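During the second year of the project, the team shifted from modelling isolated chains to modelling whole assemblies. The rationale, set out in the original proposal, was that interfaces cannot be judged from single-chain predictions alone. As a representative example for this report, we include one of the complexes processed in the last quarter. Its constituent sequences, exactly as entered into the pipeline, are reproduced here:
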Amino acid sequence: MSTQSQNHQVVFHVRRYDPDHDAAPAWKDYRVPVPPGMTVLDGLHYIKEHFDGTLAWRFSCRMGVCGSCAMLINGMARLACNTQILDVSRTALTIAPLPNYEIIKDLVPDLAPMFAHHASMKPWLIREDRDEILNPTGEYKQTREELEQYIQFTNCIKCGACLAACPTVATDPTYPGPMALAQAYRFCVDSRDGGLEERRDALDTPHGLYRCHYAGECSRVCPKGVDPARAIQLMKRNLVFSYLKLVRRREPSQLLTGPVPGAERRSEIPAPPPFTVEGAGDEA
Amino acid sequence: MALGKKHPNRLGIAGWLAGGRYGGERYLYTLHRLTGLGILLYFALHILVNLSRVFGRESWDSLMAIFESPAFKIGEFLVFAAFAYHAFNGIRLVLIELGLPFAVGRAEEPVYPYKSSLNVQRKLAVMVILAAALLVVVGGYDLFILGH
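Output from the structure prediction step:
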């Protein structure tokens, strides 16, 4: 039996839209032989190579890192590269561009509004020592516990799946969406940051943070386990507690400094072992 | 390709119910919004009905006679059911929005297979459904069987 005949035949219902020729998107079917392990991204490549070279979608890394290939696969926003076809269906797949974004072509959504909302949250460390930020001379102090407050939310790859799944985004284009709000929390809770007050205007608006009523879809579809819904709720708590002055104002952490000049080693702390490479400690 | 020409694809109200193959919390969200709007509508009607007292006892009595009809009895029951759900789910949302550890859990480094705050709050969601259902049954018994 040939390999081709051992494969499942899966019908791809793909939503096509060509802005030059189509007034509205339309569905088109392609029959793809699917061996075990084949991803949706591989399936789209197969269609492009064998049936229609004009099919457009976005992709880059093929391994769930770049966040380019998010699309609606059988009614759920997922990364095409991260999704094996036979895990979803053995007969048919429906593939559409992410909803809640305008369609540029075929499966390519316009993510620009999401990035505009992201930029409005000032997703960088806000501190008063700008010279140190621009020309760093060292590292800021941060404990493991402080890192754990936000490390979950740094995994975001900005694929946009969360906004496609969010029912609030579906009706309110001015709502920043889970990605931007989670990133606002990621920076606000960072012990090196002092920008909560600067971000408050973007967060605390009639169309801001409190539009979220915890549908939880952002966390359900997130391919990286970021859990934006949790970040949004924790951000709400931070804003309310800071407004009610229930939390002590925290100053951003300071630069790590070396030992005081002339300090002597405490007798109970052993000296480090000698260098194993000749001349390695000369410049110290 | 005609740059700038894009096709709108925002789901709108359909996104509340038919956004895709999603989970139960989405429908709790939709129900919370719909019951909220329903209670608001009832509140407006309630004010208008009470306003009829201004026009004298006859006006009031004739309106009350209309509300004795079975259709309004069912309407009254729906308002009560909406209230029961909205109240319990509102408490759930307050607990979640306070970021309490038993409601949304603590931030943690994600390890595959990922667990999220959805898993943490699920017991609250189940409790909301059970409590609202119990109150709706008791209210229905009181309204339709005892006839209060």
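The first helix of chain B runs from residue 14 to 17. Chain B touches chain A through 46 residues (CB under 8 Å).
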